[in-house]
Amino acid sequence: MTAPHPFTAIRRAGVPIVAIETADPVSTIAACRAAMNGSKDQTPCAQWDCIRGLKPVNQAATALCSAIGDPIETTNGAQCLSLIAEKYLDAKGNDPGAVWFFHAGNRALEDWTAAQAVWNLRDILKSAGSTLVLLGPAFRIPAELKHDCVVISEELPGDEALGEVVKGIASDAEMKIEDDQLPKMVDTLRGLSAFAAEQVVAMSIVRTDGKLNVDTSAMWERKRKMIEQTPGLGVWRGGERFADIGGCDSIKAYLRDYMRGPAGIRAIVWIDEIEKAMAGSGGGDLSGVSSDFLGQILTYMQDSGSRGMIFVGPPGAAKSAMAKCAGNEANVPTIALDMGGMKGSLVGQSEATMRNALKVITAVSSGKALWIATCNSLAVLPPELKRRFSLGTWFFDCPTAEERAAIWNIYAKQYAGVVQDIGPEAIPGWTGAEIRALFDTAWATGRPLSRAVKIIVPVCKAAADKIEALRSQAVGKFTNAGVEGIYCKPETDTTNTGRKLQYD
Length: 504
Known about the structure:
The protein has helices at residues 6-13, 25-35, 62-68, 77-91, 105-108, 112-128, 159-172, 182-189, 194-203, 216-227, 249-260, 274-277, 289-304, 319-330, 349-365, 383-388, 401-414, 432-445, 449-452, 459-462, 464-474; strands spanning 17-21, 45-49, 53-56, 99-102, 131-136, 150-153, 205-208, 211-214, 233-235, 267-271, 307-312, 334-337, 369-375, 393-395, 479-480, 492-493, 499-500. It is an alpha/beta fold.
C-alpha cells in the first residue's frame, strides 16, 4: 500500500507555511495537487517565480491571480507576498483555501525582507485555510520562522517510478526493453529526479544493427555528471581493482566477503582525510559549520543503519586506493564526499548543502551505502564519530618486504621501459605511493631507477616519529589491514637503526 503524500496531512491540518525540499518542483506541484483529495480543479493553485511573477496553475486561480496583481507587478518575491497579504481575503470568495507555490523559496528566505513578508502571511493564510508552499532543493529556515514553517523533504523517485520512466521513454521511441535489462537501467538511474532520468534515458538511446538500444555506459556517465552538480559530491571514474594494489590482503578479503554478503551495498561513500574535514567540530570552528556537518553525518548514519570503516595509517599506504577500488570490485559507484566543497559564504548555505548531498546519497544507494573514511591521524576525531563506523578501524602500515616486492612487480609491468637496475630490497620502508613515484620519475626523466631513487625522500624517513606514534596507537586497538587479526607491533632490529624486521 502506497503511503499518502505528506501534503494531504498538511492541508487537512491547515498548515499555512510549508517548505518542500525537492529536485523537481514541477513534479512536486503535480503531486501536491493530486494529494488534495481530488480537489485539484476546485482549489485555486498559483505559482510564482522571479521572471514570470504570479501565474495561475489551474482555471480556479485565474480570477484570483488577476485580483492580486498583474504578473509584471509581482516579479519581486517580497512585493508579491505583500500583495497576497493585502488582497487575498477580499478576493477569496468561496474558494476552499488557495495554494501558492513559490519557486526558489530557499533563495527568497535568504532575503530578510521576503522572510518578513512570509511571516506576515502566517495568520492570514491560517484563517483562510490557505497554504504557502516554498519550493527549493534544500532549506535553512531563519530562526525567526523556524516555529512557523514546516519543512518536508520530497524523496527522489524509487525503483518503481524510475522503471515507469524507462518504459515511457521506450514506448515513445517504439523500442522494447527486455525484462532483464530493466533492473540494470533502473539501477543506473537511481539518485536522479524523474525529469533528469527522462533526459538521461532519452539521450542514451542509440541505433545498433538497425535496432534502437539504450547505451547504459552513456547513462552512467551522464548520471555521474548530474550527481557531481551537487556541491561536495563526486563520482570516482578510475578503473582500479584490488589486483592493482600490492599487499593489504586482510582488508581485501574482508571487503570481498562483506560485499558478497547480505548487506547488499549499492554505493561506497568515501571521505578522504576525514580528520581535516572534521577539524573544528569539537569547538574550534566559530562558524559552527563543522559541528553541524558532524551532527548531520552522525544522525544520518544512525537513522539509516549505515555501516562504515576507518582506514588509518601513514600517507601513501594505500588507504585511499583501497576505498577507490572497493566500488569497482562491488560494481557500484564510489561517491567522494568533499565537505570542503560544501562550505558556502551565506549563513545556513553549507548545512543545507550537506542535507541535499545526503539525500542524493540515499537515493543512489537506496540507503545501502558502505562508508569508508581515510585519515592520517585519529587524534581530532570525536568518539561518537568513531562509533558510527561500526566495521572497525583498520591500520595500514608501511609495506612488508613481501608486499613491497608485490607492489614493485605491479609498477614494473606498467613502466616496462624503465631501466630497472635496482630491486625492491633497495627501498626499505617505502610505501606504495612512493614506489609509484619512483617509477614515474624514472620514466619521465629517462633515468635508471638507481638515479631516480636519490631524489625521493620516503615518509618512513621524513616522518619517522609520526609513523612510530601511529604504530603505538594501533597496537591491540586497530585491525591489521595487511595480515588477518588485530595489529601487533613488530620486534625492532637494533642493528638497523631501530627499523622493524617485519618491514625490511
